[in-house]
Amino acid sequence: MIEIERLTKRYGGIAVVDDVSMTIEPGTITVIVGTSGSGKSTLMRMVNRLVEPSQGCVRIDGQDTATIAPHELRRRIGYAIQNHGLFPHRTVAQNIATVPTLLGWDRARIADRVSALLSLFQLDPALFAARYPHELSGGQQQRVGVARALAAEPKLLLMDEPFGALDPIIRAKAQDDLKTIQRRFGTTILMVTHDMEEAIALGDRIAVMDKGKLEQYATPATILATPATRFVDDLLGTGDRAFRYLSLTAVAAFVETGSAEGKPISQERTLRDALAELLWSRRSALPVVTAQGDPVGRLTLDTLVRCAGRPQ
User: Fold this and answer.
1) 220 contacts 206 by C-beta, under 8 angstroms
2) Of 17, 108, 215, 310, whose CB is crowded by the most CB atoms within 10 A?
3) How far apart are CA 73 and CA 9, in angstroms?
4) Alpha-carbon distance 264 to 261, whole Å?
5) CA distance 206 to 186
6) Measuring CA to CA, which residue among 255, 240, 237 is closest to residue 303?
């Protein structure tokens, strides 16, 4: 658990993070979102003491981080940033091995961990371990950056705009990969983004920052349905809020008995995916199947329209 208590950072008398308190539950993804200059990156960097607080404290599993030497703290916390921050003159394997090497892991353990992470991120160790960062695509560099952050098996991973430089297709794949990895390892993730769409797609909870203040800290569904302030409401926008709300729920939650014609949809997809398929194919209902292709029922357009409405 991460407990942030009345955290403040001042530069020249100006509070860029102003009296922020929040609790992050273990094994969850929390996304800090806000416009440029809102204090979101400064808030996250105070967690691993890349920025020292002016006031307040951060506790990780009950221990005040101020009592831990900064270099020791950072070796316990994974850190991934935009543009990946890979060492250009080190191979992929050497990049991933950075923190385990500093921690004194033996060579065999490091080699096993590097190989396992490359395989996990769908990068064949035989092909990629000896390559250098400039020999990789942007998406591959991003995966190596996250693999390096996870190499020492940290319980906590900090991510600062990690997908900001990726094109939309690679970015969507990277987001899916992150959720898969997070579920597999149970890692607690604290991530910064300026993109509300990304925050809703990834976050178990979202912290909305503006001018150093925490405007709202809640689940994506709560923020969409009941924004706490005018700023949060403006940040959400109105054009696609219903579609964002549908993206939070899997098809399985609203399957009904019956059948329908045409191409089926997996129960693991989102209601937003289902609505898009219905509108595009001009149908009023979709057959729903399991991941293995077994039929389980149907989903109707009328149901989706009801689900897209703002909760009362």
Assistant:
1) yes
2) 17
3) 19
4) 8
5) 18
6) 255
